[in-house]
TrEMBL record:
InterPro entries found in the cross-reference section: WRKY_plant
Keywords: Coiled coil
GO molecular function: DNA-binding transcription factor activity
Keyword Coiled coil: yes
UniProt protein name: WRKY protein
Ranges in a coiled coil: 11-45
């Protein structure tokens, strides 16, 4: 059953709803970009830390004379 409420709704009300939805979409898009930037920074920091750890492990391995154990593979 169609009660016809959308037909009875004034054009201005539709435009207001559209404006609100567009503003919400813009806020969400801005937040999405901010979160993408944060994720990118976390990934960069993780990879830098991973490289530091790998370098540290290699140095530790070379400082131990006669130590022939394999270094652990970094993920």
């Amino acid at each position: 059953i169609n009660n016809g409420t959308s037909k009875n709704m004034p054009k201005q009300s539709h435009e207001n709803k559209l404006a609100v939805l567009q503003a919400d979409l813009e806020k969400i898009s801005v937040e999405n970009q901010r979160l993408k930037g944060m994720l990118n920074q976390v990934n960069n920091n993780y990879h830098a830390l991973q490289m530091h750890l790998f370098t540290y492990m290699q140095r530790q391995q070379t400082r131990r004379p006669g130590n022939h154990t394999q270094t652990h593979e970094m993920i």
